[in-house]
Amino acid sequence: MADSARAQKLVYLVTGGCGFLGEHVVRMLLQREPRLCELRIFDLHLGPWLDELKTGPVRVTAIQGDVTQAHEVAAAVAGTHVVIHTAGLVDVFGKASPETIHEVNVQGTQNVIEACVQTGTQFLVYTSSMEVVGPNVKGHPFYRGNEDTPYEAVHRHPYPCSKALAERLVLEANGRKVRGGLPLVTCALRPTGIYGEGHQIMRDFYHQGLRLGGRLFRAIPASVEHGRVYVGNVAWMHVLVARELEQRAALMGGQVYFCYDKSPYKSYEDFNMEFLRPCGLRLVGTRPLLPYWLLVFLAALNALLQWLLRPLLLYAPLLNPYTLAVANTTFTVSTNKAQRHFGYEPLFSWEDSRTRTIRWVQGVESSSQ
Ligand SMILES: NC(=O)c1ccc[n+]([C@@H]2O[C@H](COP(=O)([O-])OP(=O)(O)OC[C@H]3O[C@@H](n4cnc5c(N)ncnc54)[C@H](O)[C@@H]3O)[C@@H](O)[C@H]2O)c1
Ligand SMILES: C[C@@H](CO)CCC[C@@H](C)[C@H]1CC[C@H]2[C@@H]3[C@H](O)C=C4C[C@@H](O)CC[C@]4(C)[C@H]3CC[C@]12C
């Protein structure tokens, strides 16, 4: 990139900037994007930690807003150079209705695209998901696949359906003329299962283990590999993509990239134990303790209970037919597309990612005592 462009002062907007990933993207931008002059953080719920960011050289603007409200999105987008759209309803447990998931993830994304077009913002980075590809409803394994690996991406669950639709909208919008006549440049990042500081499900497993006397019970065979990626590296990929999109628009516009790093390929449970074991938990069993048919039965029972109890209370346990199918299907990526297209190398080694995550879980422990 030319020096004159590097010296340019840029305004970024991060939607969902107070979420698990969004917070890391926000902090990473402040640390590693020297051209930043204003950072707008748009979220339904603003975090108190935002105040501490307001004392630095970059102007930090917190905007409480809803992506489903087109006028709120347009007001936040107006005058920005780059939008990183991470906001989304991540719900595979049946907490929200399919309609709400669609409204936030699909209509919300459409609103972001239209806001870019109307107000003249040229660069849009979308946080998609591995779920756009799979695991599919047939439980086909995706073993060390890349962005070009053929796979039957068929979904029924509202969350992956919504992410797939939203990703398509973003990619199809690449090249649309924005206000002022320049082309919109878009691309989508597809993280696998993200882990790291702030990961709610890891916290839930940790507390469950404590309740069970320091034990977790193996439910999924160790041979089922699950793709995982450290949140700091996912955030770093977002920052790099946003930075390089202008200079490499022809190459990167309309492209998808899996998010990857050096995290090892393991089963979901064995991977979690990399962090939970040093915090005093152990995983009981070298093989699943319950036969798979019984897990399928329990998952179906949970789904039935959720439906029956819905008028009275929200019953949303971790185990349901969808989460069981995802946990029990190998889905791992092996690709270097991000390195080839925009020079991505993971910022955090596996050892670093592991240490940071363990420290965070240990902090969760002490803060809940
Ligand atoms: N967590 C993962 O493993 C994972 C993996 C792949 C992709 N993703 C994607 O990454 C993105 C961030 O996920 P996350 O895990 O950080 O989830 P999260 O729930 O922690 O963060 C999402 C953020 O979006 C905000 N949000 C939700 N609805 C909104 C609305 N209507 N208007 C404005 N803001 C709204 C939430 O308040 C939250 O701060 C999502 O788009 C998700 O689909 C997550
Ligand atoms: C059967 C249980 C025994 O311990 C384990 C259930 C684990 C599940 C709750 C999680 C297994 C895989 C997770 C998903 C995966 O990591 C990728 C995702 C993509 C992302 O876009 C959203 C989150 C998620 C769907 C993630 C959710 C939790 C799991 C299903």
TrEMBL record:
Pfam families according to UniProt: 3Beta_HSD (PF01073)
Presence of the UniProt keyword Transmembrane in the record: yes
Ranges where the 3-beta hydroxysteroid dehydrogenase/isomerase domain occurs: 13-283
This protein's UniProt keywords: Membrane, Oxidoreductase, Transmembrane, Transmembrane helix
Residues making up the signal peptide according to the UniProt record: none
Record InterPro entries: 3Beta_OHSteriod_DH/Estase, NAD(P)-bd_dom_sf, NAD(P)_dehydrat-like
Transmembrane segments annotated in the record for this chain: 289-309
Keyword Oxidoreductase found: yes
PANTHER family listed in its UniProt record: 3 BETA-HYDROXYSTEROID DEHYDROGENASE TYPE 7, NAD DEPENDENT EPIMERASE/DEHYDRATASE
Family, similarity comment: Belongs to the 3-beta-HSD family.
Protein name as catalogued: 3 beta-hydroxysteroid dehydrogenase type 7 isoform X5
Top-level taxonomy: Eukaryota, Metazoa, Chordata, Craniata, Vertebrata
Gene: HSD3B7
